[in-house]
Each structure stands twice: as C-alpha cells, then as structure tokens.
Amino acid sequence: MTDSPAPSPHGTRGPDLQDPEVLRERALAALLTARRRTTLLTDSVDDHELTAQHSPLMSPLVWDLAHIGNQEELWLLRGVAGREAMRPEIDGLYDAFEHPRATRPSLPLLAPAEARSYASEVRGRALDVLESTPLGGPALVRSGFAFGMIAQHEQQHDETMLITHQLRSGPAALSAPEPPHATDAATLAAEVMVPGGPFTMGTSTEPWALDNERPAHRREVPRFFIDTAPVTCGAYRAFIEDGGYGERSWWAPEGWAMVREHELTAPLFWHRDAGQWLRRRFGVTEPVPEDEPVLHVSWYEADAYARWAGRRLPTEAEWEKAARHDPASGRSRRYPWGDDDPAPVHANLGQRHLRPAPAGAYPAGRSPSGAGQLIGDVWEWTSSDFLPYPGFAPFPYREYSEVFFGPEHKVLRGGSFAVDAVACRGTFRNWDLPVRRQIFSGFRTARDL
Q1: What are the sequence ranges of the domains in the chain?
Q2: What pLDDT, in 10s, does the model give residues 44-69?
Q3: CATH fold for the domain made of 20-167
Q4: What is the DSSP string of 180-211?
Q5: Looking at domain 189-449, what is its CATH homologous superfamily?
Q6: pTM of the full predicted structure?
Q7: Sign (positive/negative) of CA torsion 392, 393, 399, 400?
Q8: At 345, phi and psi to the nearest 5?
Q9: Quick check: helix, strand or coil at residue 51?
Q10: Which backbone phi and psi does 413 adopt, to 5 degrees?
Q11: What are phi and psi for residue 346, nearest 5 degrees?
C-alpha cells in the first residue's frame, strides 16, 4: 500500500515533497499567493462594507482579515519562533470558537486600517521566521507544516470572504475572465464505472495534509457507477419542474422540514421571472446556465435530487477512489490527473474564474476512471458523515477536526472555483452541516452495479 509520488501520466514526476528547500520555496509562494488574494477581497470594497455584516451566517470581512493575522502570529511567531505576543489583548476577539459569527459585529474589532497594519506586520515577521527556521525536527515545522497550514488557513478564509461577497447586496465588486468551454461535452458518457477492490485512501506522505486526511489506509469498495461530471443546472431544473420541492417522498425528514419551514423552491440565489430562471452571482443577475454545475445546494437538496433520479450520492470512499485510484498501477495518485501540482489546464481553482466551468471542461484533469472535474468547480456533497480514519491522531490541535466528528456534519470533496490549490488535494476533506447552502457546493450522483 503506497501513496508516494510516482511518475505522472505526462512523463514527469510530481514535486519533490521531501526536499526542505523545495518546501521552503513552496511555503513562501503559498503565503504570498494567499496574501494577494486576501488583499484583493478586502481592498475591493470600502471600509463600511468591510465592517458590515452582510449575513448573520458570515463574519464581517474585517474580522476575517484580523483573524488571519492573529492565527499567523499564534502559530508562526509565538509557536514556531517563540516570540512575545504582539497584541495579546485581541486573542479572544479573534477566537472562532469563543465568538459565533452572528455576534462578531458587536465586538471591539480592529478598524480596517489597524487590521491591515497588524496583518502586514505579522506577515513581515513570519517571512523572516520562514527564512531562518530549519524545516526538520519537531512535527510542527517538519517539512514546513506550520507554514503550509497557515497558507491553507488564509486561503480557507479567503473562500469564506468570497462567500460573503456573494451574499452582499449592491453592485459587483469583483471580476474575472470566463472559464473554458467543454470541448467534448456532446460525446461525453453520462457516467463511468469504477472497478471494485481495494485502494489506498488518505495519505501518510503529503507533507501539508491536515490531520483528518491521515493516515493512509486500505479501503475495499465494490464496483460502482459515478457521474462523469457534476450535476448541471439544467438537470437540476428538471427536478424542480417535476415538482421535486413539493414531493415529500424524495426528502430526508429533516430536509423536508427545512423545505417547508423556509418555503424553498430552488437553489439559493435562484428566482423565476417572466418564465425564466435567473440567479444572482457576485452582484450580477443572469440567466441560469444550463450546462454549468449546479451551485449553492444543501446536502438535503443533493440527496433529494439523487433519489428523484433513481440514484444516490457517492460515499466519501467511492468519491476518492474515482478521483485517485489508478487501476494500471494499483496506486493512489495525488490528483486525478497524476502527481503534478494543479495547473490551469487541469482544474478551475484559485478564484481564477468566478463561476464553475461547464460540465465536461478540463479533459486534461480527468481521472483514470474517466470522471472529470473532481477537483475544482464545486464542492461535492457525499453521503458520508465526517468521521476519523482508523489510526487518526489530532494534530496540531483538537479543534481543527476532532470536535466536528459525528453524524451532524457531512463530507464534501474536491474543492471549488473558490479554493486555492494549496487547500485542495485528492485527499482533502471538507465538512459542513447538511442544511448549508451559501457555500460553493454542488454534487454528482452514483449507483450500484
């Protein structure tokens, strides 16, 4: 059983993830990339928009900005370098467990200029720490883990801030080019068969993998069929127009209660006008694109659609096998296309575009099974509860994963257009409450043989 890097299908090896200096360069690049994105997301609106709460589901953008700096100070300056606290009085204000999102606007938060200055000063000192710290020894710094963790943390908050941009009212503040078209969508099979048998799930070798991705372990999965691409808006519209939101038999009891309580009739941000489905996307109202993966659906909506279609959501293990397992070699790849880091030809990541690409795009990113768009575009709900792998050990703190384990949270896989490559791998696990709709979530379906 192995998940170690091996030659990619393009004839090159994946990156050298054992060389400390390579990892130092990767950490520097990841931190700088994350900060450029944070700056874009916070500089694109005025101070009033930064301090406003655009939804009780989300923090004010200025809270995210200072929280990013505070976590970087806690882990890199105090944790790795052992330095004195810069602003110990603000630790409690930016503790995500101490203050729910809905209450954060009432806190004495740093003003926008002060938050920017604080985050910038922390970053300058953190880069000095990165340059001078040997990337060996204790687990926190070995292979640059702490620096990779902080880059991932910032990118995760960047995704959260992008969700806030989607929820805010008013004109568009962001722009991006359109994603590529699908070149062979008309001839693409609707589903692919994934062979049964064992495969390696999780990782023990990816240096910046988080605790819930570990350790690598053997899973036995019977053969199954899975959609070649995520379910599209057009396919989901058929469910709506067939009365899907009015037929109790398709819904889990809690999902039906959610539909009735909130009078749901379509995905979040959709509305019907003059016989046409429209949606609001980052301040722009546009027709719902038929060929684009459906977005902003809860787990309950995904599950109901799958039942209506005579199918089901894939398990987390099925999703990962479809994405990573290479039957020819018997090994699990880092990504569907091989071991090389994601490139623009492979996947829609990093806020390069502000929407999913049409179903069937990115043929170079398909897995050995033939399934595509498993990385990027939309987070994909699975049927699985968020649970630890056999041999799980919390690291570097229990609150990252362990406190969320249980049936209350469902697993999402694959990332979205809002996720950066540093926070998205074939083994990366996301989780959320099954009612959640504001996230960039979609799904694909599966069936037994």
Answers
A1: 20-167, 189-449
A2: 999 999 999 999 999 999 999 999 99
A3: Four Helix Bundle (Hemerythrin (Met), subunit A) (1.20.120)
A4: PPPSSGGGS-SEEEE--EEEEES-SS-TT--G
A5: paralog of FGE (formylglycine-generating enzyme) (3.90.1580.10)
A6: 0.95
A7: negative
A8: -75, -20
A9: helix
A10: -130, 160
A11: -90, -40
